[in-house]
Recover the amino acids of this structure.
């Protein structure tokens, strides 16, 4: 209900341009209020479940060996943090994601831009890439290990492949869907191809490009787990495997929480870094 | 001087949007193209702006045959088409990339004053009303000092009050450099308010039905009798243009008669 009210308010601000200025102040306060309520509501379920479980274990209603209570997970987490282990593993994972993300995103942007802006290149590139996309990325693992060895290179390659496809598709699609009407504005002012790309296409695709990068980053974190499963001595994925082999569910859950925090932090960082580029359309972003 | 010689446009799907248009627009003249939808008005403006290629005939600007977008031709579309990532100021300055910074600043500021949006210079287009956006779009076309300005039903989406004030803004800008203006409209009052000549068009295929000079002195009094008379004359012409499809042009009828005779 809160959500529908909020979108009604935003929708109003969009459609009645005449009143947009007058509405601006009340709209933002109203939005903030609705937003706060939603956040609190969202916390309710996980906190309630955590408390219930904690209570159940404390009062002996449940054993909590396979599903440790929150207090034990937090204790494990802080123990890992104190020995410094947590940071070593988190940093290793982050580094792999970062390198894989950069490689995958850069090649996705380049190939996506090529295939989005030239019909010939699209016909040349797209069928091959679409065919490769149909292969589940994990299926590459044995090949990557044969080609690149069992150490970092094969892991980074897997992550890069995971990041590449959403970025490639997002960028190519964004370029193809740029409003012809805005392109015509550029044509009327006789922009060259390069100027058109820089002054119209690039800014027009930025919002979708950011979304593509975000989903790429999300997949990067998904694939780093897979990569670290295939034999690593460091990384949060190693903590997972180790926790399973040693029968330490609290360590597994601690690693999962670390993954969640790391992923969210990385995503927020990406959003913050790209925010100035797409500020002009932050109304839409707030609804994402 | 802007002239069309036997200008025709047939789209790829076979639609005959324009057929044998012949018209001369004098320097500094404001010509209103009037006609129902589908008369090819937008098509005609797109040909002049160089966004589409004619199928036959040619367009000349001061003797030069136009092929593609020309620096002396500006256009205001039916929608504002502002670039959402540029501020109001930068939108107006969009066509001034080749002009030095000081000159650009001066021209844009002057245009902002003319359209009454100085205090909105740094806002995003999304924060403007529809009427304000269309004013920015008009300013964007004017700052490059075009010799020919094309307007495609620029005020059709606006309410009557906003429209009247935009007519004043438009005439205010026009007075300064007096460009040749081709204004597409389906609003007869608007045509009589702004234009020196009304050209009534007919659809299927798009062609010129009639031309009516509007010689009222400026500024025009919308409540006066001469204004009313002009409005009525255009309405009458429009009326005839709608009935005309039944009474085919003489030449066509002769040809059909000949075909029958054979
Ligand atoms: N890109 C196009 N392809 C095919 N037919 C078109 C295209 N644009 C316009 N038309 C057709 O050409 C005719 C004239 O259109 P238009 O110039 O938009 O008329 P107006 O602006 O007077 O309403 C219409 O029948 C329309 O359907
Ligand atoms: Mg039209």
């Amino acid at each position: 209900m809160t959500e529908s009210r909020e979108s009604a308010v935003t929708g109003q601000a969009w459609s009645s341009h005449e009143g947009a200025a007058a509405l601006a102040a009340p709209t933002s306060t109203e939005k903030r209020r609705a937003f706060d309520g939603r956040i609190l509501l969202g916390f309710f379920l996980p906190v309630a479940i955590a408390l219930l479980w904690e209570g159940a274990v404390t009062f002996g209603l449940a054993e909590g060996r396979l599903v440790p209570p929150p207090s034990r997970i937090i204790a494990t987490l802080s123990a890992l943090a104190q020995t410094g282990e947590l940071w070593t593993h988190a940093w290793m994972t982050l580094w792999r994601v970062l390198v894989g993300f950069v490689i995958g995103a850069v090649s996705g942007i380049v190939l996506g831009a090529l295939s989005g802006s030239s019909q010939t290149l699209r016909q040349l590139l797209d069928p091959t890439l679409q065919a490769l996309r149909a292969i589940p990325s994990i299926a590459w693992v044995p090949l990557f290990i044969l080609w690149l060895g069992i150490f970092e290179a094969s892991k980074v390659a897997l992550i890069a492949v995971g990041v590449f496809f959403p970025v490639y598709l997002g960028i190519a699609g964004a370029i193809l869907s740029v409003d012809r009407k805005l392109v015509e504005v550029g044509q009327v002012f006789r922009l060259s191809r390069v100027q058109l790309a820089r002054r119209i296409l690039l800014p027009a695709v930025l919002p979708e490009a950011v979304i593509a990068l975000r989903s790429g980053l999300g997949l990067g974190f998904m694939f780093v787990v897979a990569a670290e499963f295939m034999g690593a001595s460091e990384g949060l994925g190693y903590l997972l495997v180790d926790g399973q082999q040693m029968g330490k569910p609290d360590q597994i859950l601690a690693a999962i929480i670390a993954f969640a925090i790391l992923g969210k932090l990385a995503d927020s960082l990406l959003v913050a870094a790209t925010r100035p580029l797409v500020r002009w359309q932050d109304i839409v972003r707030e609804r994402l | 001087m802007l002239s069309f010689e036997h200008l025709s446009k047939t789209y790829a799907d076979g639609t005959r949007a324009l057929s044998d248009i012949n018209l001369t627009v004098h320097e500094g003249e404001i010509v209103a193209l009037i006609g129902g939808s589908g008369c090819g008005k937008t098509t005609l403006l797109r040909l002049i702006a160089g966004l589409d290629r004619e199928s036959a005939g040619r367009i000349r600007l001061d003797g030069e045959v136009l092929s593609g977008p020309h620096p002396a031709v500006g256009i205001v579309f039916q929608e504002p088409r502002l670039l959402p990532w540029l501020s109001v100021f930068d939108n107006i300055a969009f066509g001034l990339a080749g002009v030095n910074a000081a000159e650009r600043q001066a021209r844009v500021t002057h245009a902002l004053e003319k359209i009454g949006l100085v205090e909105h210079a740094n806002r995003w287009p999304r924060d403007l009303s529809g009427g304000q956006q269309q004013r920015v779009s008009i300013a964007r076309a004017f700052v490059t000092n075009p010799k020919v300005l094309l307007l495609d039903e620029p005020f059709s989406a606006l309410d009557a009050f906003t429209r009247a004030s935009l007519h004043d803004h438009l005439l205010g800008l026009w007075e300064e450099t007096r460009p040749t203006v081709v204004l597409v409209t389906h609003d007869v009052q608007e045509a009589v308010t702004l234009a020196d000549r009304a050209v009534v068009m007919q659809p299927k295929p798009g062609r010129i039905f009639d031309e009516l000079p509007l010689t009222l002195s400026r500024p025009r009094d919308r409540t006066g009798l001469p204004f009313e008379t002009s409005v009525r004359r255009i309405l009458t012409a429009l009326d005839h243009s709608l009935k005309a499809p039944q009474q085919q042009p003489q030449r066509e009828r002769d040809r059909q008669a000949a075909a029958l005779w054979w």
Q: What stands out?
A: The pocket of adenosine-5'-diphosphate (ligand 1) is lined by residues B 11, 13, 15, 17, 35, 37-43, 206 (CB under 6 Å).
